[in-house]
Fold each of these.
Amino acid sequence: MKIIDGGITSPKGYTAAGIHAGIKKVKKDLALIYSEKPASIAGAFTQNVVRAAPVIWDEKIVKGYKKAHAILINSGNANACTGITGEEDCEQMAALTATALGGQITAEQVCVCSTGVIGVPLPMETIKKGIADIIPELKGDTAHADDAAMAILTTDTFKKEIAIEIEVAGKPVTIAGIAKGSGMIHPDMATMLSFIVTDASLSSELLQKMVGNSIADSYNMISVDGDTSTNDTVLVMANGASETEEITEDSSSHEIFKEAFDAVHTYLAKAIVRDGEGAGKFIEANIKGTASKEDARIIAKSIITSNLVKTAFFGEDANWGRILCAAGYSGVSFDPANVSLAISSDAGSITLLTEGAPVSFDEKYALSILQEKEITISMELGEGVSQATAWGCDLSYEYVKINGAYRT
Amino acid sequence: MKIIDGGITSPKGYTAAGIHAGIKKVKKDLALIYSEKPASIAGAFTQNVVRAAPVIWDEKIVKGYKKAHAILINSGNANACTGITGEEDCEQMAALTATALGGQITAEQVCVCSTGVIGVPLPMETIKKGIADIIPELKGDTAHADDAAMAILTTDTFKKEIAIEIEVAGKPVTIAGIAKGSGMIHPDMATMLSFIVTDASLSSELLQKMVGNSIADSYNMISVDGDTSTNDTVLVMANGASETEEITEDSSSHEIFKEAFDAVHTYLAKAIVRDGEGAGKFIEANIKGTASKEDARIIAKSIITSNLVKTAFFGEDANWGRILCAAGYSGVSFDPANVSLAISSDAGSITLLTEGAPVSFDEKYALSILQEKEITISMELGEGVSQATAWGCDLSYEYVKINGAYRT
């Protein structure tokens, strides 16, 4: 398994494009990912009962059709809370893209994703023109992969993409992904769009199973602000263009593929948090010694979601009581008398609590650890042998600023 | 039922004091509330599994002894996550106070509350001297009631107190309360201390039942930051000094007392939110038309807890999609197509969503509504006839500032 240069077009048989259609004022706002061969498709969607029109559309494709050719994504407008009009607009986007791509492609082979402001109808004339404009732009090179990665962003400050190469029975197989954050990010499918494509050959059923496993330890373990979006979507395509043997659960290549597949999801999930709205620090919470993995997940997520923990890290304040407090109200039962807690970064490591007893520490040394950009919280609960990791960021003035005037 | 001038000493038979003992640098930090007659005592405590030493102590008194004479409160240090030392310190505070009060009072008749930083041992020498100093200060006048109300505050910017007078069989009975917020405030006993005293005569059992009912619609319906504290405590004393008949569940006066009792709790809960850390706006969420009251409570709390909703109000932005989104991820099932939504304030009222369809609105008029200090969100779900109200505040730069450097 090796990370290679490149983006969403690195696996064989995929082209991509990203353009400025005019939904946003200046930045790119329309992306298309296309596989000439029909690809197995799988996905995971927001658990919010308020679901944007494209979420409903894509789930229908993933569950009902299992093969797709393309994913069309617009940023700048979420097409959420837009009623029947929104559903019709979404279907029209798929139909127009299918027609423009030509050949035998149907609307039901085109997934659609939207991200941006909620409750405003899509500017369909702009989007129609954008679809006509983007088709001729489709290319398989890195520049066009980057354009697509840029066009799906909203308040993100950098593009999130990765490509990993593995060998399946001696032949190269590539998995690549792009994603966007960066607000409305919270466990239960953190608010995000993530698109992963591979030239491996897999059934949509196996792909779906692998997506479910993968998101539990990646996107579902990050939080920027505790808000679960109406549009969260992960879509995965596998087109078999590598012409390698089909990967099944019994294949010798299953493990290596799974490892790379999980690595792509985890990389993108962490990239989303690194670019959390207003985030200045990246916080990893490693929870060990719980009675079950689910307990560890719940505690880890509670800690990285706590506004008081997040503001303490923003202030570079070793206020470890807030970390213990957030574990305490997570809903998981444990004995505080057995808890040990440490924080670490490139500047060093410091123990704050040993089996329930506070450890006096040097404030200057703690400050030097907290002044780093990446900080790890390590908590041991002494209740069992399970563990989990979650990723979050600090809560800054900038977060308030960005979200105090998002629409304007 | 009428609100009267006065504070925690308004009911007969109570004295109070608040002094600067030296736990904080300058402000008052030690308060005492004293009833000469033994009073029925009831309480409610944090649901956090990490519980501060005084929470454990007070719960023992409430459950085991049912009568108390005094409540000693220090601010500036929460005596939480302080291990066995913390428990010993707490017990010593009760014992010293009991001895200093003289007579037949035992340590188990003195409740103790602490609020402030977590994980730092109490400065016991300072507190011992403070206890000796505060006893001679006890008085029944308004000035001393105000001193006590001030001494329990931490980052609060104003004291929270109320006194209500009712008639029980033709004779006056008074209920009074003081409380503190103002961060680590979230449903499941919002982070706070609240002390209510009355000169009515009630058994501790009935008082306990009434506390349980009352907190469900008051403190448990507020949120400042989503963090549930280690120290949340409500304590209620009823000393019977009004010399009115005992109130039982069958009394004709039960309803009027309950109404006044609930009003005291609700007033204090709302005062805590009004003074939420960095809060510039007071947000009320009225949720109607749910299948159960619990559904309405969950949705109301989800909305007022959402960082994205809170920052939108800070930015005076009518970003109603975030409100619907927060309802959608609350865990309650509903059909978004039936939801109607409006916001209102002293400047007017505006409908944003009617049965799932966005209503176009005048942005200038919406801004004029949102520029007010108190804003009401009204949501109708069309799933039933239940309703609930929750109270929250906006999320401001000031919140981040206060919590980025709490310990320093």
Amino acid sequence: MKTEGGSPLNLNPEPHAASDRRRLRGGAPIQIGLLGCGTVGGGVLRLLAENSGYLAERAGVPLVVKRVVVRDLEKERVSALDRGLLSTNPAEVVDDPSIDLVVEVMGGETPARELIERAIDRGKGVVTANKLLLAAHGPALLARAAARQVDLAFEGAVGGGIPIIRTLRDAFASDWVERVTAIVNGTCNYILTRMRDTGASFDAALREAQDLGYAEKPDPSLDVDGHDAAHKLIVLAMLAFGAQVDAAQVHTSGIRTIEEADHLYADRFGYTIKHLAIGRDLGDAIELRVHPTLIPKQSVLANVSGVLNAVLLEGRAVGPSLVYGRGAGDLPTAVSVVSDVLDVARSIASGVAGMQGRGMSIKPRRVRPLSEIVSRYYLRFAVEDRPGVMGRIAGALGDAGVSIEQIVQQGPTKRSSGAAAREPAVDVVLITHDAQEGLVRSALDAVAREEFLREPVHLFRIEEP
Amino acid sequence: MKTEGGSPLNLNPEPHAASDRRRLRGGAPIQIGLLGCGTVGGGVLRLLAENSGYLAERAGVPLVVKRVVVRDLEKERVSALDRGLLSTNPAEVVDDPSIDLVVEVMGGETPARELIERAIDRGKGVVTANKLLLAAHGPALLARAAARQVDLAFEGAVGGGIPIIRTLRDAFASDWVERVTAIVNGTCNYILTRMRDTGASFDAALREAQDLGYAEKPDPSLDVDGHDAAHKLIVLAMLAFGAQVDAAQVHTSGIRTIEEADHLYADRFGYTIKHLAIGRDLGDAIELRVHPTLIPKQSVLANVSGVLNAVLLEGRAVGPSLVYGRGAGDLPTAVSVVSDVLDVARSIASGVAGMQGRGMSIKPRRVRPLSEIVSRYYLRFAVEDRPGVMGRIAGALGDAGVSIEQIVQQGPTKRSSGAAAREPAVDVVLITHDAQEGLVRSALDAVAREEFLREPVHLFRIEEP
């Protein structure tokens, strides 16, 4: 992670007490406190137990779970949990001087934030999978950890079992990340895959996802409206571009507006529709957006199907690099959390805690407004079937300086039953060449004033990742 | 990396001198010696120079190139190289006590092996991208490094810029790798992509690859016959399965036998032909093979095109995980080498060198013979066009206990001009259900005795990665 210019958050204090800390530790086990014991927490306990011998060898000392904080002492837990370790009091983890490492898997902002801050202030290493918290307070938490010379690790926060955080941090250490193109929400990807493969409507595919436990019931909006993906993009941008961003700066749209017809037209033009989180480093600014996107069927991202996630990085020297896998689920996320636990435990045991964040610089960066981005566009207009309409649409785009690569008219459509009673509607669908979004929007404003338009225009951006 | 049972190579000595070493070092820069300065070496020098400030921050001390050993002092070099550092004497790197870290980018087995051994013996960290050497002597070199408590890092050896080594080592630390399915030879992948997309013959696609510098001239056999992929599979198996294997144990076949017709039939059945390196951990044995393979067009590996590489790991807990990117080229490989340099330098600077290999166990494991593997098969028989032939082929397979999923007959083919003079040949092409390879081979032996067979049978295995 590199940025130009100064760094308002100092993540680079001099390590001074490391060798003392190691001498003090001797070969004592690393004592771990868990905050939360849901599905991920249960998976962490299981993996720590099953791999204890191997992890002790890798860390150089045994890893021991000392305390597990939960809300309900009576609830059923995994068999790997010794119930004697349970407590409802988080202070027994974050304030216990014998605990070296805190694993936060409770989620949410409150009280997770305060507990992590307290753990850091008391010199403990922290591992978390809390993307919401990191999206809101990541840079401040990292700076706090760096100042206190402890590690804050969060591989599980983005992309479940995908090693994207360590890839950005370590593998790209000597490269410059120019672009991030990511499928990071399994719910959206499942719904879009089913719509494409079975011709299902959004509503039908959502119900199916809910029945399978891939989408929240009754309110799936955190996923299908793109907010979850936006949180993950903020965390990725922090590492890839050294950017401190808040959610309001990320253009975020979800998948509710995609209709069956859009999948059919996309396919006809050689594309697949994916819900992407896109980040670009333009030098003087960055671009951050989350939205449905048409990508070529030959793209490697096009075959990332169902609940799978993938993050494609474009490095200046290394070129494209993709990591792919299960983006959610208790075990994949738990594997990432335990990998972090091993890393942090090893650093503590060898007296070099707090080194991972060294050299990081995270600061606010200008985010390019959506109107300034340049993209190709897929536009679908449901219009009255009468002569001259295609010409009026093409004309409006031409007047705005937007040139068209392909245009087709097809219909009548059966979607809009109210409209069909009047007169059959047809679809005019087109693909533009590269154009600035502001120009496209002004053309659409002109078309919106035409009486032949039956529904709001369907606009999706096109990427060639 | 985990294996069951004992470990004949002891990679786990107690670290004892680490804090002493760190105290001795103080904040002194890490002195680097380069062995070799070809395209990768030049890229390494460039990245070290361009990122020197950032790398020093991350490592905690400056990284300084002290000596660059080359064969020809007069040859043109990258501008990042201070020619005063050049030497033709490798002893000035491996025997110089002030050099902390040796980067071996000369390639080949001799003298690289001896120089790396000497560097290890003198307590230096080593970074290499030498897959040939690692395939032949990886376990012994790792054991030597562990015994001397120094790091031996080799991210650049497999998959160029793809962070596959650290993914296996770190991200999968608490998981068990059950399967590795990899596209690791860019030359083969380029040729197969061109054959599929343009209908070119193997010879034409090979010439094109040679003209573009993607295949060696005049002898491309290291790549197209699969040996390069086998070397990489051996390195992957060392980390993924803790297996010490030699090249003779890896079934290796190349892509010369694939004809245009095979791409057409594969496509018709819903598959793409890829040259894959496949490893499986079956518990009591492992499976290691390199060969052309039919995979479903919907597989994420199917869209890994051109010179790109990808490694798909199947973890018991984490599920599928894929890393993908440029598998070769000076800069991608150099990025991996420099990431390793940073890792190793950081360990030296903080007095914890030699910890990365801790907990690794590498030992000989039983490799399942090819006759025992179970797979689905694509079989193409070029036969005389006469009644009963399809029945005879199906009968031979049935007699051997191999059941057929699909069978088609098509022709006449135009491929075999000599045969065409006699009588038009037709193709009988079939896909089997899962079958043991030994049974398939015995069926093919029976068919080989039939006089209707015009050419040797084309056999390709089918995988569903």
Amino acid sequence: MAIVEVTVIPLGTGNTSLSSFVAGCLGILEKSKGIQFQLTPMGTIIEGELEQVMNLVQQMHEQPFAAGADRVNTIIRIDDRRDKKSTMEGKVASVEEKLIKPGGTD
Amino acid sequence: MAIVEVTVIPLGTGNTSLSSFVAGCLGILEKSKGIQFQLTPMGTIIEGELEQVMNLVQQMHEQPFAAGADRVNTIIRIDDRRDKKSTMEGKVASVEEKLIKPGGTD
Amino acid sequence: MAIVEVTVIPLGTGNTSLSSFVAGCLGILEKSKGIQFQLTPMGTIIEGELEQVMNLVQQMHEQPFAAGADRVNTIIRIDDRRDKKSTMEGKVASVEEKLIKPGGTD
Amino acid sequence: MAIVEVTVIPLGTGNTSLSSFVAGCLGILEKSKGIQFQLTPMGTIIEGELEQVMNLVQQMHEQPFAAGADRVNTIIRIDDRRDKKSTMEGKVASVEEKLIKPGGTD
């Protein structure tokens, strides 16, 4: 299981708004089983088996071309931890726990 | 107002867990006025006046050094839109609206 | 043909030097036909057919695990332009040409 | 001394070609003393004192707005190593050395 953030950016579209492209990309994830995902203001974070997630990410990258774009920049960040199970929820909880009980960090 | 995602990664720490470093970085944001921020499983997203946010990001980058790290990789993504006011909440809402009413994208 | 930058970062290795991991990743590219690549101080840039490049990138991501790492962060940026052929060499040349003959930009 | 990669991406320009914007950003670096930089097919890599480099990066981010863009996405990656002096040239040389004498990695 890996956690992957993806941001798909169509270029040269002539419109500063990109939300309809992002919605198209999310449509791909909504149809997929075996993954969790969350939309953030800067991209989409997906949790699942790495090979499946990377396959979905490549489908998301194709989406703006299908919607008319001629150039797409896609940024992918993989966080893959294999010494223990890592989840989107667990990662955030682990940080928040240390904020509530200060002293752990400094 | 810009929206900025930052991920601070200490290297060579000998420990695969980084949550205490992340908590230290968030401590800097909690003390700051005039910004909004949210923790995600892949980083921290900050909304505010660009110069102030970049100043905070540079303080966050220093945090792992203060906590003992010798090498830090920091990834920053700025989304800066000046033709209309853009907010973290507004960006997500704009995509979700298009998901509820399909047709805009495909 | 797409141009893809990849940076593979093993975490928690206990050593701030990562060059041996990078060399291992490059070994994968040196054995591959049909692609061009160049090493930069911040990653590796690969030019080739997108599906093949993404397959190689995923092999590169596995390399530090094979070499003993327990957590790997990999950053991938795809620049995919389909209205004209784009190459690593052509992109740099296009910018340099505009530097020599100023006026094009402003 | 830190090594910083920056990619400045104007959005909604109506033109898939971005090289004139990139040339404008490089003009800022060409006038600056105390830094080294190199253009790659995926961005610009700058070596220098971190505070100075981040100041230049923020000037580069402003450049497309001055040239007419209404939205700019800028990606910045800082590699900051403080246990030994790290240079752009030294990082690449360190990897290449391990490629010539295999055995170090695997």
Amino acid sequence: MNAFEVKNPDFESTIREKLKGQHFMHHIGFDLTEITAGKIVGEMDLTKKHMQQFGFVHGGVTATLMDITMGFAAYTLMPVGYGVVTANLSIDFLNPGDGDRIIAIGEVEKPGKKMVFCTAKIYTVKGEEMTQIASARSIMAVISRKRS
Amino acid sequence: MNAFEVKNPDFESTIREKLKGQHFMHHIGFDLTEITAGKIVGEMDLTKKHMQQFGFVHGGVTATLMDITMGFAAYTLMPVGYGVVTANLSIDFLNPGDGDRIIAIGEVEKPGKKMVFCTAKIYTVKGEEMTQIASARSIMAVISRKRS
Amino acid sequence: MNAFEVKNPDFESTIREKLKGQHFMHHIGFDLTEITAGKIVGEMDLTKKHMQQFGFVHGGVTATLMDITMGFAAYTLMPVGYGVVTANLSIDFLNPGDGDRIIAIGEVEKPGKKMVFCTAKIYTVKGEEMTQIASARSIMAVISRKRS
Amino acid sequence: MNAFEVKNPDFESTIREKLKGQHFMHHIGFDLTEITAGKIVGEMDLTKKHMQQFGFVHGGVTATLMDITMGFAAYTLMPVGYGVVTANLSIDFLNPGDGDRIIAIGEVEKPGKKMVFCTAKIYTVKGEEMTQIASARSIMAVISRKRS
């Protein structure tokens, strides 16, 4: 894994503060469990509300967790006064999402001044078994405070 | 727009029935307003729970509406006993999602026996103004009843 | 189709000049036939060198034509002193590329100061029949002359 | 890295045979240097014909090398009588392609009966320095001999 240059040493507390405004994240029940430079991990228990008609995790849940973990992974590397917005999110669904718990890992692949390239993986956990259900890539566009 | 071959003439009632099991769709508050061969439209009022920290529609909401409308657009063309699962979902976020209402349109671009290629557009409505906030493409994989 | 704001009225001659340096485009045998604000069309005859082992157009040829037509479509809207580089290119291959001639159409969907969102379609022509073989989306990143 | 199940023990010679028909690959000057189960590596010297107008590797070259290495990576895992065609190819361009030599690595992420999910990375080499210039994901659709 790369070691990234951190420009805001207080990125974790800045992100913890931002999370309060992540209404959709709270509506789903997702929370972050690891906030490190260029890498975000989050988890949640899967309940009926996360499902589609076949009893599998809804693709929208998977997409949401990817967007959140990659967006905040990019955010950990932003200077004070800068943020990111998602420009492109591309997801491959590898396996049906069947499980009791879901884990999302978002990571920065390559940071830049205008764009940050990220990757994400999503796993479901069923009993002792952990299965990767999706992989994604994203481009996060850097924005200055005026818009954030 | 293309005229597609319909293999299940009762696709609308089949989809209405399936929607009952779309727990995540109901959790968000989204519903379909138009179900025609190869095209699905849906809408919902935007409230605080759909937002991220900057007061814009969460990317996960946008992604969810795209997945649902493209998935069911593909579903309208399936023979009885067949369904679809999302294989790839690729979204470009064109503008910040700022508005009172959101409209999602999912359409089939090219149906096939194994894969259905779809496109989607998302708009927000603020007062009299309508803005396209995202465009997407997807590949829906055709599955037989065993999995659906 | 949208009417886009043109910032360099001489965009066509600027592009014609740039094309001289498109060595890979010439190596393939592709050329542009229409250069208008936000839209580029190009064509070429298909010969054995464009093929893969099944006798169909190579996916790399399709990808190249999409990259070129979308990149120059974005370029038509750049102010003097600015250019674009491809940030993301996402292609769906709808049908096998079987034909005597190939046509590529790249268009701007949404221009911006930092990023231009584009779409492309590729067709093959066999006798009287024209078939769409691929659709794509791209994000072109705007760069200033320093890099271009 | 995963250990994948090999169904055609002669996959390397089968691929070596197929390569003869890869006319576009030969036209570019690319060749494979490593053919193992689920992983393909290839390299070539960069010359003027691979460039665009800024003197960097053309995005179409990058896309072509990704399509080839991911396609053959998927092919290594096919049973006799089966092949693959690219369904989706999504590429992020991380850095300008500046160098004397280019290296492409394509790998299977998750094989399946109908679809194989792959990833690819492209590097340029300039003197002693190696730079990753692009990352990609693809979906390869499995086809039976009738079409291959």
